[in-house]
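Private note to self, pasted from the team thread so I don't lose it. Backbone tokens:
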């Protein structure tokens, strides 16, 4: 497993969760505060792109880490509920299905 795959998977998991926050805030403003769609119009596409990036990376890591089918499917489903990607990433790290840390790449001389 390349450490960059794991690193990008972790970044995507956190970024997808952060985009959920933006989208949820946008929805609160749209439906409860100012009845304006601008937050949803901004964060909706951002969240969509980050969700797709997370799914692609989840499938890549699933194959390279040789996760079972249930774990792999769970990795994809984790992108559906808010903050599920972060919870899933922590779970696979805690259970040894994903390396706890990625080694730093040596600097080129």
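Design output:
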């Amino acid at each position: 497993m390349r450490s960059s795959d794991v690193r990008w998977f972790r970044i995507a998991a956190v970024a997808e969760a952060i985009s959920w926050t933006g989208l949820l805030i946008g929805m609160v403003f749209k439906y409860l505060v100012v009845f304006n769609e601008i937050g949803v119009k901004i964060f909706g596409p951002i969240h969509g792109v980050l969700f797709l990036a997370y799914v692609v990376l989840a499938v890549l890591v699933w194959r390279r880490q040789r996760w079972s089918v249930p774990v792999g499917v769970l990795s994809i489903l984790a992108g559906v509920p808010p903050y599920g990607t972060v919870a899933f990433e922590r779970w696979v790290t805690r259970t040894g299905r994903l390396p706890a840390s990625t080694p730093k790449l040596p600097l080129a001389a």
